[in-house]
Amino acid sequence: MNTRKLLVSAALAAASGTALAHPGHETASFFSGFSHPFGGLDHLLAMLAVGLYAAQRQGAARLALPAGFVLAMLAGAGLGAMGVALPAVESGIALSVLVFGLLIALAARLPLAAGLPLVAAFALFHGYAHHAEIGGAALASYAAGFALATAALHACGYLLARWMPETAAAQRLKRAAGAAIAGVGAVLLGA
Length: 191
Prior knowledge:
Order of helices and strands: HHHHHHHH
Pfam families: HupE_UreJ
InterPro entries: HupE_UreJ
Structural class: mainly alpha
Number of strands: 0
Protein name: HupE/UreJ family protein
Signal peptide: 1-21
Helix content: over 70%
Organism: Thauera sinica
């Protein structure tokens, strides 16, 4: 599959509407989990941004950041399943959109020892929110669905960034995309 088809597929999935993000509209628990990250702009932008940010990095960080996000997101869902209260979940998600956008806009290169915990901390909020929408779905299949969708969104962001040439104009475009993501994060925070 070429990059253009992958991007078109991701765009169509992202445009599928917020109704898919909420349980009760379908019976397949894997599908409801898979569709949830595509249904909210906050989740969608944060997950694409992790892929975009990872593409700016070198070496192990390119894989560690998205993988760390997915693992921490599953841990956040686990916290929700255990009944642990996580305060300010929606604010944490909105702040993740802002911070990830700023990291891209500023072309920040945090050391992996700082970037990975930052990404993981925000992923806890996303996972907790995903669990809150579980409805009657089985946790394992629901979590597998949203983990796979998240990894796919990370891959879309990564591939988009790597597809662009290493020119000054492309770098400005990536930074502008980061600024736009950060702007949406600021709006979501009510700033």
